[in-house]
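User: Can you help me understand a structure? I only have the sequence.
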Amino acid sequence: SKLARDYWISQCAHPEKITTIHNGIDAAEIAATPGLDRVPSRRELQLPETARIVSYIGNMGRTKGIEAVIELARYLPEVLFLLVGLKENKDRIRLKKVATRLGAHNIEMRPWIPPSQVGPFLRASDAVIIPPTAKPLLESGQTVFPIKTFDYLACGVPLLAPRLEDTAEVLK
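Assistant: Let's start by predicting it. Here is the structure, written out as tokens:
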């Protein structure tokens, strides 16, 4: 991103040696289907066929701001928030505590999956989400723009994302 480029220049990198090249996707893994029919993917993943589903697919460590997704879920109890990407049991415990404290009973957490298995989760979703918080960006001092954004854009469903310096460059 331009934000990442500017950061490295501020750290004394030579501007003429840095260029911004945005990521891409493997279209075979994330097949966007016009007129997307979610039902087959939901059946495959054992998800409710008629629910409204907002999905986050990615790392759920402390620095990713997943708590903001859970807080949003609290205000939308009629929507299932599907969080896919748990690697550590400590993250599951932490996030379950947050959901319980906030009264967000509409959260489903699933373990980490390899990129080749992300497609069905994207196709099963009514929307995908990047945690709506500036906390990771502010704490790191540099871009934390998720690579998954490009997969999210390719899947053909609405994307919910914070309006931040690192996401605004790609999301218009």
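Now, to help you interpret it: The longest strand covers residues 79-86. The beta strands are 52-57, 79-86, 107-111, 127-129, 159-160. Let me know which part you'd like to focus on.
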